[in-house]
Amino acid sequence: MPDEYILQMEGITKDFPGVRALDSVTFNVKKGHIHALVGENGAGKSTLMKVLSGVYPSGTYQGNIVINGEKQVFHTIKDSENRGIVIIYQELALIKELNIAENVCVGNEVSRFGVINWDESFLKTEKALKQVGLNENPLTSLASLGVGEQQLVAIAKALSKEARILVLDEPTATLSQEEAERLLKILLKLKEEGVTCIYISHRLKEVFDIADEITVLRDGKTVASYAKKELTESKLISLMVGRELIDIYPRRKHLLKEVIFEVRDWTVYNPAINKIISDVNFKLHKGEILGISGLVGAGRTELVMSLFNVWGKKASGNIFLEGKELHISNPGSAIKAGIALASEDRKRYGLVLNEDIKRNISLASLLKIAKASIINENEEIKYAEKYTSDLHIKTPSIEQRTLNLSGGNQQKVVLGKWLMTMPKVLILDEPTRGIDVGAKSEIYNIINDLVRLGLGVIVISSELPEIIGICDRILVMHEGRFTGELLAEEATQEKIMNYATGRIKEEVNQDG
Amino acid sequence: MDKKILFNAGFFKHIRRYTMLIALVSIWLIFSFLTDGIFISPRNLSNLFVQTVAVAIIAIGMTLVIVTRNIDLSVGSVAALAGAVAAFLQVKMGWPTTSVIAAALIVGVLIGVWHGFWIAYRAVPAFIVTLASMMVFRGLVLGVTNGTTIAPLSDSFKAIGQSYVSPHLSALIGILVIVAYIFLDFNRRRQRIKYGFKVTRLPLEVLKLFLISSAIAGIFAIMIFNRGVHCAVLLVMVLALIFYFIAEHTVFGRQLYAIGGNPDAAELSGLNIKKSVMLLYVIFGALTAVSGLVLTARLNAATTSAGQGMELDVIAAAVIGGTSLMGGEGTIIGSVIGALIMASLDNGMSLMNTNITYQYIIKGLILLLAVWVDIATRNKA
Fold first, then answer.
1. Residue A255 CB: number of other CB atoms within 10 A?
2. 3-class secondary-structure state, position B218
3. Which of B194, B251, B265 is facing A352, going by the closest CB pair?
4. Is ipTM beyond 0.95?
5. Is residue A475 left, alpha or beta, with left meaning phi > 0 and alpha meaning psi from -120 to 50?
6. Residue B269 and residue A364: Cβ atoms within 8 Å?
7. What confidence tens digit (pLDDT) does each residue in B323-378 have?
8. B262 reaches A (C-beta below 8 A)
9. Do A335 and B192 touch (CB under 8 A)?
10. Residue B254 distance to chain A (closest CA, Å)
């Protein structure tokens, strides 16, 4: 009975250079349902929604989008909005400097000959605010609202565009418990009013609370679609992670040596985005690869950035390197002490893209190759040549701009930069994101070589097989806390997901 | 396929490096033709160099300021203030020239500290900080000069902006520059061989040395045929060399480019951005004061309107010379060439008695064209 479906996406295939992001995905949503879309990071959820919304215009993918039985061709976001599809992204597309009414109406102004009719606009806004249960004056500036209320404004804006299919991408990731519950109630109320909702979330409890149906994506493919009552949480988790482990992970013997790096009672917060890293304790041994796992938004990146004092405000905590306490006021002092951090976003935090390989590798160790502040360029070339060949960076010359390198080679340049600082502790945040399998395996080998030389390495990764494959020990984060610790031998993807989704947080806390 | 891409990238890189030089030579040829050769006479070209000096000195430093994604709109006012303070101290208080030079430099350094404090440590956008300074220091110029022209200066002060090194000595300096250049180049080559790196083949290296030496000799010859090298022009050459060295070969200079290219990556690599930006503004303040001294010496007076509109010429010179307002890219030599292009347009059009209306329009359009060419070739490179 196809006509009971409001939306059918059939055989959607989307390729990016070198990667197939979606592989003939089928996704069917019934009218008036809340349909949850779940999957690991990188499973293809966001890509699928971008196809649906016209961000990737018709023609850049294969497959059909059918709404109410009619085949659709979307060239722009506006096209999909005209058919009632509105997406609310995790990073809200609202303008903080404007008031609620202006935000709700922007792009869909009530106007005649280009002149805005503010009375009508306020009326429209008030109606939409009522629908989402937000009691605010439309003239209130957005900046004075909390994150949860801003989320409601975003939904109100969607409703004012007469959305019939509302897509929410991780709407509760930045919300507190109460705010999240309020949002879920409103979604259920909208459902009664006939709005269809596609709900993307990592919080499985929420999914089970409100969804009628659940579709699981994995590695760009549809794994299964179930009605909620046919599923249990543990079955869902195994569907999300249940892929075969391809053995690209070089194994090595792990000898536990003395503690090299320790973090105690680490609590930092960032009031602006309502995020807190609380009460983190961990030790890293010499020659150990320690994994930090967790879902996107769990606070892993924020944790390591806060160690360098570039994220949040510190409330408490101490850092020890080789038994001595460190006072890190800025990245410079951390690097000097012997800690290196290769960030997850190599283009934003890792490389100066318009400069060449040589200058990027030497950037964090200029004093090492300078005498009286004058750089010895020959020494610089020597180091650049050394790391280019040690790390197998494929390039015609060390004077190639890093902009022109592939992702894997860019990542190696970042690694080279940090190795040149001669670190004792190397922190790698998503070291293999967006690079191909061959380069991944090379990077694993490099990490193994480094621990053999006595470094302590911390690897943050969202890819469960990777973190299980290369780490000696794994810490799992959920909402800014460590919820579990697993040794490599005992770690399974299911166990990690249980901790990462906060399902068995309580048990761990009771143990501890 | 790969080879072709590489070839193209290299091709555009080279074109980019020489675009502005080619543009300068073209402009000279066009004006020489239009003025029946008056433009290209040693006398006129020497004048042209002298006219470039005040803008070129500041453009040298402005390059680095823009490289770090900052700007300075106050240079005209600051140069005027430094000159006014110097003239005031000499004419009204009778200070000797060396003391007034020191006083002017101190004024420049203090203003640099003031800018650095607000821009680096208080995170106020450089555009606003220096826009405010543009007004504040113009006000101080009026205060110091009491709204009148302060003149005349002592001979030793005037010498900075008006005297010439004798032709014989000029020739000697020119020869020394060429010898030093050849020596340094061969030294560099020897070092590279010692490290076991590849070097350019000897005939090519010699050809390069010959071409560049000829260019240096040509520039000196132009000035020697007139009255010798002008002191202020010599000053620009020295400053350009020093700043070229800072930009290319020191930790400080290297860090400025990284900060402008990607401030986030620079910070995470342990660079102290605030300290670097502060130091840069301090140096730049002193450099601006030097320009003010030259300007004042050349006019033999400090006036209330000195340096007005200069900031735009300076920024135009840097941008025409290939400095990117997005940060991270720009060369000292490029900016000096940019300053020469701007001065050549002024000079050439004046010789032709072009209506001032068209002078402004043409200069504006050439600035636009130059930046467009820069962006278009940048995308391909």
1. 12
2. helix
3. B265
4. no
5. beta
6. yes
7. 988 899 999 999 999 999 999 999 999 999 999 999 999 999 988 988 887 777 76
8. yes
9. no
10. 8
